[in-house]
Amino acid sequence: MTDLPFVLDAMTLDDIPAVMSIERRVFSSMWSSGIYRHELTANPWSHYRVLRPTRPDLPPILAYGGVWQMDRSAHIPTIATHPDYQGRGLGGYVLLHLLLLGEKLGCHEATLEVRASNHVAQRLYLRYGFEVVGIRYRYYNDNGEDALIMTRPSLVREELQMELRRLRPWLQARWANILQTEPH
Ligand SMILES: CC(C)(COP(=O)(O)OP(=O)(O)OC[C@H]1O[C@@H](n2cnc3c(N)ncnc32)[C@H](O)[C@@H]1OP(=O)(O)O)[C@@H](O)C(=O)NCCC(=O)NCCS
Q1: Closest Cα partner for 46 from 80, 19, 12, 69?
Q2: What is the DSSP string of 85-100?
Q3: Which of 26, 29, 84, 124 to mutate to test the pocket of ligand 1 (most atoms within 8 A of CB)?
Q4: Rounded distance, CA 22 to CA 152, Å?
Q5: pLDDT tens-place string over residues 8-36
Q6: Which residue's CA is the nearest one to ligand 1's atom 42?
Q7: Is 145 considered catalytic here?
Q8: Domain layout of the chain by residue ranges
């Protein structure tokens, strides 16, 4: 079985252009590069990760996301996968690592907000142990859409590591197939 063609790494200021090119394609209301600069340099509670390919024929960043340490809660402010590589397990892989990072920072639960219409993201969160616990009405300024508040009520290192161990062989098989059959 081949190894995975990407590694998880800390996001740096040099990553912002590649992150922005993904933001432009996947979010209707995107963050600015200034927000990322602030997050990386001036927010002591934020931690961002990227998935960097280990092959030159893949885009410079495949997926990324962040976690804010908010007391005992790990808040996921953003997560995204390159639009050409969605549905291949990368969102789950990044999410699990962000949850592990939250656990390492001392958080006992994880929270996030998601657009009521974003069923793909909601499925991802449900798959990884989140449940809907509330609604923020008209939360999004651009279209007045509601946000669902989703929480993963427990962050236990052994459980998260087991989820990663379960995901890994699926990812390896999926990516071996992608790299054999898809042009890049
Ligand atoms: C939401 C988002 C991050 C998900 O990323 P992704 O890389 O496509 O996520 P994954 O591939 O891990 O999961 C999606 C699908 O992959 C497949 N998959 C992933 N892991 C799998 C596994 N272990 N076994 C089988 N199928 C799996 C499934 O088809 C899954 O869909 P399902 O939930 O209907 O079963 C991505 O769609 C995105 O960037 N969207 C735009 C930005 C966005 O909305 N961000 C969230 C803001 S709250």
Answers
A1: 69
A2: GTTSSHHHHHHHHHHH
A3: 124
A4: 26
A5: 999 999 999 999 999 999 998 899 999 99
A6: 80
A7: no
A8: 6-181
Contacts of 23 (CB under 8 A, 6+ apart): 30, 31, 80
The whole-model pTM stands at 0.95
Give CA separation, 156 vs 125, 130, 145, 162, in Å: 16, 14, 33, 10
Q: Quote the tokens at residue 125.
A: 């969160």
Ligand 1 atom nearest the C-alpha of 90 is 7
How many CB atoms are closer than 10 A to CB 74?
27
What is the DSSP-derived secondary structure letter of residue 62?
Answer: S
The CATH number of 6-181 is 3.40.630.30
Pocket of ligand 1, candidates 67, 68, 127: which has the most ligand atoms within 8 Å of its Cβ, to mutate? 127
Quick check: CB of 127 below 6 Å from ligand 1?
yes
